[in-house]
Amino acid sequence: MIALAAVVLALAPAGAVTSASSAAAKWPAWKIVAPVVLSDAARPRLVRLRLPAAIDPGPDATYPDLRLVDDGGTETAYAFAGDDDGAAAGARAVALVDTGFVPGAYTQAVLDLGDGRALHDEIALDTPRATYFERVSVDASDDRATWRRVREGALIYRVAQDNGRGSARIGFPPTYSRWLRVRIADPQTPFALSGATVARGNRPQPVLEPLFVDSALRTDPATHRQSWTFTGRVALRPTAVAFAGGSGTYVRRVTVASSDDGTTWNDAGEGTIARYARGGAQSSFAFAQATAPRWRVTVENGSDPPVAGLRPTLLARPRELLFRAAPRRGYALLSGNPHAAAPRYDLAAQLAHERARPDASASAGAPADNPAYADARPLPERFPWLLTAVLLAVAGLMALLAVRTLRASNA
Description:
It is built from five helices and 28 strands. It is mainly beta. Strands 1, 2, 3, 4, 5, 25, 26, 27 and 28 form a nine-stranded mixed beta sheet that branches. A nine-stranded antiparallel beta sheet has the order 11-10-9-13-7-6-14-8-12, with no helix packed on it.
């Protein structure tokens, strides 16, 4: 692991490496350090920083041990960024016409934007569903007869167990077309729509990111069940699973479970993946969020043979934080201290009052071992076997003394 950390730091910019090393030296109780890659500037900035998925989010995704420090080792206040998934300025409701479901293919709705000839580049769909994960395509037409594809494979999602976070917005190149056709690629279940709005905003859309975690596949010959076990270096908090590959036509039930120890598993949710002869497919679904180092995805094949070539990937909603960067300072993220309490800063309230918007972005390098780390736990916690060894040694010494005493009394 130390060798890997050296490679990661070697690939990062020199300023980021210096910042991470100098910052970590003053925080030896934190095991993990990640350099923040931020361009130099001569003025203070409000910076948006996406957290690496390899940082443990904690049981409730509150990152209790996360600290942001500058290159002098001084703690820097931060606030978690919101999803910014509210209505865009100038958004307006539009009529839904010709809604329907084609079994084995998709749910379709046509949006009538009226004859005002306004420019638009975003749709927001309203649905009563609390949790969903769907792929959407959008076509545009000027006469409702000839259609052209303006967006393919857009992702909309929402997770009820994560306070309804997600995005039901779909962006596409700006168009004046009056008619927009939306197709939601769930071939099994009609996707209920209660309304839609259009806007001209070109806003960045929240996305789910793949968790690049190794998995081990096990196939049970008796039940035809395929199970992939994902094991992270730190606890993971996925919110969806997406499948790639797979040949032929099929409809399969899929379950997702999490575990802290690899022995006891907790159900996180279930869904269905399918591929139909007419071309309809469903390859992903969302499930209840939880934090655990091990996750298991199981495809129930029933009496059918396993689907060859399936490859699941866990997806997570990335978290971002905001902080005020001082001119020409370096920064680093620290984590890996299970005894640390969550920090409390005024920054979130200040930013909300000021309605401040970030004017710069930063990225984080891969987390690596803190070279200055020193385990401050008491010896019994660091080496749980030590107390047992001492007790056994004392017991052995007492037994030896007892034997010697007995022999001396019999002499």
